[in-house]
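Final report, Chapter 2: Outcomes

The project's central promise was a pipeline that accepts a single protein chain and returns its three-dimensional structure in a standardized token representation, suitable for archiving and comparison. That pipeline is now operational. To close this chapter, we reproduce one record exactly as it appears in the project archive, with the input sequence first and the structure output second.
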Amino acid sequence: MKEKITTSLAPEPAGQYSQGVKVGNRIYVAGQTSLNVETGSIPDSLEEQTRQVFANIKHVLAVGGATLSDVVKVNVYLVNLDHFDEFNSVFKEFFTEEPFPVRTTVGSKLKGIEIEIDIIAEIECAVVSVL
């Protein structure tokens, strides 16, 4: 069964889609942008924008009961692939332990934003012993 995930701490969807959907122990987070919903602004540098994107992702994950350590797949859309190194340096701040999530980074024409990221997270199930 699909469960809608929504939070006021991340940007509202710009179309007919959910911020996130939880199916069993898996969470799908829609493409998040660098909009800070508290200030209504977008940071200036790509590094700051990337940090804001991950803050938005963390808010959606939290509602579903997950954290960035549960992320298994990351799709990154960059307007300018020449900025890959700046993005990647920030990515390393958020994913510090192996196994790292799998990742795809592609160039994309995004309207009014420099970066968008969507993810898939898998929440680990606790092992229960029955005696």
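Archive annotation: The longest strand covers residues 71-78.
This record, like all others produced under the grant, will remain available to the consortium after the project formally closes.
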